[in-house]
């Protein structure tokens, strides 16, 4: 089936997957019907809400349906349609993890904490062109009505739906686990070898706040024995493909950690310089995008500092890093 924008598939009974193009890649959102409850997973971009989610929800919702929106994490391609959804469904309950609130809800805070977290410490800033692009993707401010601080049972058996905290890509990243059918909706909680374009090439490297936190979330997913994994920027993954994707996600942490250690060099270095060296060591990621590595590399550097193998001078601007 098609929507006004992109397509919609009922991939198992009562679970709908909406997919749209986002420039060179895909983005997807999910609608899960659980009795009178409707759980929407991610709001997509403003255009996803306007042309895909809202018209679909208007068809699916009855009078008396309780609609909740779960925002997996604070990136524009996942929350940008929220304000528009709230306008269309004023009783909408907006759910997110407390560790992502803020930035979630405030666009100013999202720019500061999510898109330019290294501006004041490492002189890594967005171009004015990138600011314009991001502003057009975030919609308007909104309120998060339910801030989770632990896992949550959203619906009891026989429908059984659990909301799980899988930190890594963000501190409060959430995913949805349907135990009866062994389906996990992961947002960007697990990223394989990177986020891919439609043609299979890479758009972004895996981005995580800490390699140890990200690793333990992936290991938590491995224990679930997932049969159908639904990532935001991948086609649905089934059976053995789930296992390989989770394995690749773990390998990508080791690979990036190794390249980061190699890239530091013997002199003191800045975060941007280390990112540039790591970026140059791959030939798979887009040119001139070294800052895309900053979040994960800073996480790796913080682990090295805690292990005593790296000195960080946080008083210099930009910060400098030196191997011990
Ligand atoms: Zn995303």
TrEMBL record:
It holds the Pfam family Lactamase_B. InterPro entries: Metallo-B-lactamas, NDM-1-like, RibonucZ/Hydroxyglut_hydro. It comes from freshwater metagenome. Residues 26-233 form the Metallo-beta-lactamase domain. This is Unannotated protein. Gene3D superfamilies: Ribonuclease Z/Hydroxyacylglutathione hydrolase-like.
